[in-house]
Amino acid sequence: MDHIKQLDKLSSIISSAFSTEETALHFEQVEIGLNFRSHFSVSTSSGNTYGLKVPVRGTDHGLENEKLLGDLAELLDCPNFCSVRQSNEIDFIKPFKNEVVNITRWHKNSQTIYELAEASKDNTLHDADSERFLFQMGEWMSFALVFGVHDRNDFNFVWNEVSGLSMIDMEVGLRTKYIDEFYWLCVYFSSDKAEKPNQRRFLTSGYDNFQRKLNKQKPDVLQLLKQYPHSSEYELQSEGPAEQTILQFLDTFFYV
After folding, report:
1. What is the pTM of this model?
2. Residue 63 maps to which CATH number?
3. Cα–Cα distance between 149 and 141 in angstroms, integer?
4. Domain extent at residue 75
5. 3-state secondary structure of 186
């Protein structure tokens, strides 16, 4: 299949999967990350970018977890969730021959927290956007703890200035909760102890907001988990009070 036909086929697959008209302009291999051999990005005329991936880094049920956790994030309206769909029709790209592929609509015009320039980091965490960043991080922190999502480093959170924070690459999930996954945040926080009450308040507010959504949608959450054999018996992890969890986190990593 020539390149033009490949783009036409990708346009059709993505448009059908996401129920929107998309025209693929270009696709290329993603050159970073442990899944780079089977990870491609597709740019489109709308400005949206889509990731095509079959997780190969050795985690159990990576393909299913990424789809399931993407669906759970969408169901629970997590901040800037990245919708995930699947296709077995992308066999014209060599690594995807005879494979089911996850198609993820990426958070538009975003960069990983790691990639942000130093000035932008400061603005995100210490100035105008600090409250939004911390509130959204509190939501995602709660999501990651409840569903046992590991490998939560600053490459796996992305930010844009319009809508804020999203969490990505969730194939390592449905394990036990592990708040140490977020230790890296201390690098980006102010060391000024006077800011501690606000940091705690914003993180806690986001954490609590997610817990409210989870409680409201729990029957649908459990129904989604039952759709996959490996997740059907999974027990939701941290559902305790946010204040205790956030206090433990802040005191352990930021203020000792």
Report:
1. 0.91
2. 3.30.200.20
3. 9
4. 3-105
5. helix
